[in-house]
Amino acid sequence: MQPHDETPHVPGPSLWPVGFAVGIVVLLVGLIISWYITGLGALIALIFGFLWVRDLTVGTALTHAEEVPPERPTGPNLPAPAGGPAMPHASPERYPRSKFLELSTLGVGGLIGGMVTVPALGFMVMPAFLKQAHKDIDIGPLSDFPEGKYVVATFMSDPSEGEVSRRTAFVRYNGPGGPKNQPSFTIISNHCAHLGCPVQPNGPLNNKGTKEFGNVTLIPTISIAGFGCPCHGGQYDTEGNRIAGPPVRALDRYSYSIRHGRVYLGRPFSVSRVVGTGATAQIHEWRFSFPGEHVNGIESWLYPVQPPH
Amino acid sequence: MASDRLVERRRVFQQYKADVKERGKPFYPYAMWHDTLMSFVVVGVIIGCAVVWKYTSLLGKLYDKPADPGTINFVPRPDWYFYFLFYLLRIFKWPNSVFLGTIGIPTICLLLLIAIPFLDVRFERRLLRRPVAVVAACLVVVSMGVLTYKGATAKEALGSELIAQVPHWAAKQGFTNNPQAIAGAKLFAVSGCLNCHTYLGSGGHNLGAPELTAEGAKNKGIDFQVRHLTCPSCVNPGSPMPSFAGLGPARLNQLAHFLEASKGGK
Amino acid sequence: MATRRMTRSEQLQQTILYPLDWLEERSGLVGGVKYFLFRKVPGDINWFQTLGSATLTAFLVQATTGVILAMYYKPDPNSAYASIQNITNHVFAGWLVRGMHRWGASVFIILMFMHMGRVFLFGAYKYPRELNWIVGVLLLAMGLGEGFTGYLLPWDQTAYWATVVGININGTAPFLGPFLAQFLQGGTYINADTLSRFYSIHMLLIPGGIMALIGLHLYLVIRLGVTSPPWSKEAAGTGPLADASTNGAGPRSGLVNPRPRRSAR
């Protein structure tokens, strides 16, 4: 690395080059917009260019300008100067510690952090808990459900989402003993109440009697003695009560409505147990909870608040 | 004022640094050669596994069927390195203890793992003088190995898989020429009987129901079997087995024939 | 300043060294790499201590194959399965990259456990390496989390139902469990958001955490040094104060009998 020359060859501060640059810019802009502006730009560039060149060739800078000392390295470049404090101790202190500045820096920094993170976190977390809309699903006419036998019904809970919203429920028509003498149905969800595995009906299916329409498939069963879960061995009876294994409550059920002779599935809800069978069964209903969560008893204190479902 | 123990620790560490400076060897190439060779082996194993997976069936299928959220025919399993947790869930089969098996024990183990440097503050590193550590390590390895193996071999009775076994059952029990028994065997496979009972090695045994492989050898008779299937708790008071009366007399008859023909397998 | 012409080899050396010097002057990085490469390690380290770098290699294989797979994988429930079939059957060497990623995950987890076991049995979690051990346990947890979130991505039956169970397992945690489960699922049931969310966690969130912690882990290993095997007769740390009859434990080193507490004196 060669040291800089001692003789300064940079001229003093002057605005002529700036004016020249402005002229060139105006000239180029004028090429796009209009020839008059080009002419104006050329004129400006010429004037300032002339002034600039005159300064350079005359040899002296503007008479009242001061010479600017050339840039010079202040010390050896490498290795970095060893030793010495990072912040040189100056006496007296030119910049005394200012609590106000310190606090304001942290405060504004915190504010910026909040302004960026809070909406981002909200975006990440909130949508899972909002807008849990629910549409009633048509699963077929009353005539498709023989009395006393379960039908395995597969449907889409939200057709606009596609296959990912496919669900299965076990639907049994119990006869006319429902509220206000409406038809009574037992509609059981196929998600095990232990950890959500798909439970299987314990009994042969009548695959030849399968009906399909739209997104719905109905497979009648011949006879079912209950439901069993293949993951960890949970067993349920025909009303969905837990008989054996780790499930913490009975199988979830769907509410339903009958409109124009067709069955519509409503919101699911959780069940602790069912006393009795069929249309006269007493269903101990609870808010819908995820599998594995107790809804009653002492363990339900572990889950005091449920997120909006 | 640092405690004696801390002062000693610091001294030993300074000694360590001095020893390494004086008698150590440079990382490159000595240790790095070992590292590089081992890494080469690792990459070779990974590529080998990929090749074996593609061209043989030793490592399982390349893919399963597409996801079907409405299935009633599938036995879920996690990836093999979670089998020990999966089997833990089968051990904790009392509903009141479910959260222990899911969250409780794994969290406690994780916290214990993090706490190890604070639980063991002795200087000693030689294995023979660390009995607690060695025994604990052996117990952990053995138990995780056993849990993983049990998780891998845990079988559930899945109707569609069991039906495929009917010809094998017929051959072993000798009822291949008995159409009633064959029909009964198929009903047996799909009606969830093997969720509680065991038969010729299939089925669930942790629910306490009797083994049925040699049911026919007890010679209880077709009538008894039909009566029992129609109302199990009438025949065996206190039995948790549900009633299969809904299958109808014809099918119950077939099941009875199947049970009576199961003499124990040759 | 050399006043004679340099030989060919010296000229070659100068050419190679010049860019390195340029880099070193402006950043100091070359010095860092030299320190890492030529630092001293105990003379008696053995093959078990290669498990750590083997784990790192497995992670790098996962990261590389993962990035490549991400160029062909479509994280949407309607096209995920088909994109995996495409990768396996049609893309050039797609079956190899996918296979390496899938089995690399198992190898990574096995190596992590083996490395953890080796560190435990060597007592290399003791002072002053406690922090490194804690970082390692966190890495283990994150590695298992990678396995869990990545398992959903092929969107086949095993993937879907194993994830249902995994999310519900999280849901059984007391108090916040239901919220955690619903957050992971992106709703009350698994839906299209779940796959996107797991993809983001698997590709960005956890790998970022793993890479940061690996950086910290390696920094601590370099700073604190590697231990000698505990059975070594020349274990570093026993030094000149060691007495041969106590198998390398010096009279004041406390290796055999812990020093009595202050209060007991």
Summarize the structure.
Chain A has three helices and 13 strands; from the N terminus they run αααβββββββββββββ. With 309 residues, chain A is α+β, with helices and mostly antiparallel strands. Among the domains of chain A are: 16-58; 137-302, Rieske [2Fe-2S] iron-sulphur domain (Rieske Iron-sulfur Protein, 3-layer Sandwich).
Helix content of chain A: 10-25%
Q: Largest sheet of chain A, if any?
A: 5 strands, antiparallel
User: Largest contact between protein chains?
Assistant: B-C, 82 and 100 residues
What is the number of helical segments of chain B per DSSP (H or I, 4+ residues)? 11
Count of the separate structural domains of chain B: 3
CATH topology of the domain at 137-302 in chain A: Rieske Iron-sulfur Protein
Question: Could you characterize what this model shows?
Answer:
- The complex is a heterotrimer of chains A (309), B (266) and C (265).
- Chain A has helices at residues 16-33, 35-58, 99-125; strands spanning 137-141, 150-156, 166-175, 184-189, 200-201, 211-213, 216-220, 227-228, 235-236, 242-244, 253-259, 262-275, 282-286.
- With 309 residues, chain A is an alpha+beta fold.
- Among the domains of chain A are: 16-58; 137-302, Rieske [2Fe-2S] iron-sulphur domain (Rieske Iron-sulfur Protein), CATH 2.102.10.
- Chain A starts with 15 loop residues before the first helix and ends in a 23-residue tail after the last strand.
- The mean pLDDT of chain A is 85.
- Chain B is mostly helical and 266 residues long.
- Chain B has helices at residues 4-23, 27-55, 83-91, 98-119, 131-153, 159-163, 166-173, 179-190, 222-230, 232-235, 249-261, and strands at residues 25-26, 198-199, 202-203.
- In chain B, β2 and β3 form a beta hairpin.
- In chain B, α8 crosses α11 (249-261) and α9 (222-230) packs across α11.
- The longest helix of chain B has 29 residues, at 27-55.
- With 265 residues, chain C is mainly α.
- Chain C has nine helices and one strand.
- β1 of chain B pairs antiparallel with β1 (40-41) of chain C, so a sheet runs across the interface.
What's the structural blueprint in terms of helices and strands?
The complex is a heterotrimer of chains A (about 300), B (about 270) and C (about 260).
Chain A: H1 16-33, H2 35-58, H3 99-125, E1 137-141, E2 150-156, E3 166-175, E4 184-189, E5 200-201, E6 211-213, E7 216-220, E8 227-228, E9 235-236, E10 242-244, E11 253-259, E12 262-275, E13 282-286
Antiparallel strand pairs in A: 1-12, 2-3, 2-7, 3-4, 5-8, 6-7, 8-9, 9-10, 11-12, 12-13
Chain B: H1 4-23, E1 25-26, H2 27-55, H3 83-91, H4 98-119, H5 131-153, H6 159-163, H7 166-173, H8 179-190, E2 198-199, E3 202-203, H9 222-230, H10 232-235, H11 249-261
Antiparallel strand pairs in B: 2-3
Helix pairs in contact in B: 3-4, 3-5, 7-8, 8-11, 9-11
Chain C: H1 8-27, H2 29-38, E1 40-41, H3 51-70, H4 80-89, H5 94-121, H6 130-151, H7 157-171, H8 177-185, H9 192-224
